[in-house]
Amino acid sequence: MKKLNWGLIGCGDIARRRVAPALRDLQQCEFVSVNRKDHSKAEAFAAEFGARKWVKEWQEVVSDPDIDAVYIATPVHLHAGQTIAAAEAGKHILCEKPMALNVRECDAMIAAATANGVKLGIAYYRHFYPVIIRSKNIITRGDIGKIVSVQMNAASHFNALPGEPRYWLLVKEQSGGGPMMDFGCHRIEVMLNLFGPIVKVRSVVNQLSFAREVEDTATALFEFANGAHGLLFVSHAAFEAQDTLAVYGTRGSLHVRNLNSGDLRIVDENGERLEEHALKTNPHELLIDDFTRAVSLGQNPGVTGHDGRAVNVILDKIYHPD
Q1: Cβ atoms within 10 Å, residue 41
Q2: Of the four listed, 35, 36, 151, 238, which is most buried by Cβ atoms within 10 Å?
Q3: What b/e sequence results for 22-35 when a residue is b if at least 16 CB atoms lie within 10 Å of its CB, and e otherwise?
Q4: Which domain holds residue 156?
Q5: Distance CA 153, CA 212 (A)
Q6: Is position 269 within any domain?
Q7: pTM for this one?
Q8: Domain at 8, CATH number
């Protein structure tokens, strides 16, 4: 498989911890260029992760003829404009989550990718978690019967101060919302992947602990097309960290205490058993490997722009209930 030449737009937290190491380490990827306003920091970042070039403006990444694909790792309000520009320059795009601030922007991104014949993927990397793949197999085979309910809790105590690197997450015009936009979107993608379309949404979104522009806690109740119920709780205010999945069926249930650790407890007619499906690599390697192969083989990536849009449809309903 021919190597895919990558450009990275954005050098924030997720780029440093996950994206750049994956672009450096994957054999089928060539890390060509990265941008950052501070040129000295861009040079240091490039040297650390093996990028051949460093530039000041993201437009220079998009216009570079040496680049085949771009990874967009910027705040949410920049995703649509940068994706459209990259598509118009003929670059394939893998964009951070959530896809955009709203469905209208998602539609514009999809239209640009389609019009220019490029692939568009969204970075919902939990789609590739071994524990999610195993759970989907169990559910699809009907091993735990008809699904009655799914519940997910996600909490991470967070309230950045102005000037701190991740403060933009609390600025509504940049992030679109609080924990529901930040990491609730990941859980919505998991639910859509495992259980199919959501047809009804009810929500409570508010500030319980912190005075700020976006919510610190939100709860959403879903009804799936197959009749199953879903409950999603997310919070920046809760003290105890949470990252759980519980699936209840008519003949059994699945319980994941921590999605990142991959422990799976199965309860069914045969009793109770434990399985381990731990990640053995940087999860962004799974995501970027899938996207790279999709480009090479002319196939759709595991998480497409349409999948990203489906998450934003639910986010819009949570934040703007009828």
Answers
A1: 12
A2: 35
A3: bbebbeebbbbbbb
A4: 130-278
A5: 22
A6: yes
A7: 0.97
A8: 3.40.50.720
